[in-house]
Specification:
0% strand, single chain
Length: 232
């Protein structure tokens, strides 16, 4: 357990030093200002959190997940990591846990930014119950986004680069936008976070199972790849 905690601490440090979470938050800040003309808190929160869930949650999280694993190949540090006295499974799990912690921290900061900037826009109709309800939906949608982002380390490991999974993340965003308003949307994993944020009642068991399949493939596929694939 001590080894895993040490690895998580190292991975979190590497993620923070990459400045990618800061770039993600800066881009989200830009997205917030797109809705500076919104008149009420309800409209403002729904619009900004929807952008966070779809753009940041799908692409931002996927890019960071891809970088956390793909950089080890591109920087040539992969073999050095495997030489450490810790199992490959623990290495992979430590990376996933570090990513999850960073995603949650990024979301908390983003929520604080949203309310801080919203208070500067002279919005009307603030309701604590409404704000709490929207924030709760965002957290659940964020958990869906985190789960979906775990597929991209597997793709990065197979491709041994960052470019391939990042390119696929653009396809995931397009898929979410195209199918999000369609009847089949609740069954498409990448459309589910945005749909849940807008209308949670539309998400059924089949949709949740589709996300579970993506999580299973991403996590166990990455573990198996790091343990058994030929390393050249």
């Amino acid at each position: 357990m001590k080894q895993v905690l040490s690895m998580i601490k190292i991975e979190v440090y590497k993620i923070v030093r990459s400045y990618i979470p800061f770039f993600i938050l800066a881009f989200y800040c830009f997205l917030i200002f797109i809705h500076i003309q919104d008149k009420t808190w309800e409209v403002f929160l729904n619009n900004t959190f929807f952008l966070y869930s779809t753009v940041i949650g799908l692409m931002g999280f996927s890019i960071l997940s891809s970088w956390a694993f793909g950089r080890e190949y591109q920087d040539g540090t992969y073999k050095d990591i495997l030489s450490l006295p810790i199992s490959r499974t623990k290495l992979v799990c430590s990376k996933f846990l570090a990513l999850e912690l960073c995603f949650i921290a990024t979301t908390l900061i983003a929520i604080g930014m949203t309310f801080a900037l919203g208070s500067c826009f002279s919005l009307t109709g603030f309701d604590l119950f409404l704000a709490g309800s929207v924030v709760k939906r965002l957290f659940i949608a964020t958990l869906y986004n985190i789960s979906l982002s775990f597929l991209f380390p597997f793709i990065a490991s197979i491709a041994r680069s960052i470019l391939a999974p990042v390119s696929i993340s653009f396809g995931a965003l397009i898929t979410a936008v195209v199918f999000g308003s369609q009847p089949v949307g609740p069954y498409i994993p990448w459309s589910i976070p945005g749909i849940y944020l807008s209308n949670p009642q539309l998400i059924n068991l089949a949709g949740k199972l589709s996300i579970s399949v993506v999580v299973f493939i991403g996590i166990y596929g990455t573990i198996l790849w790091w343990n058994y694939a030929d390393q050249k």
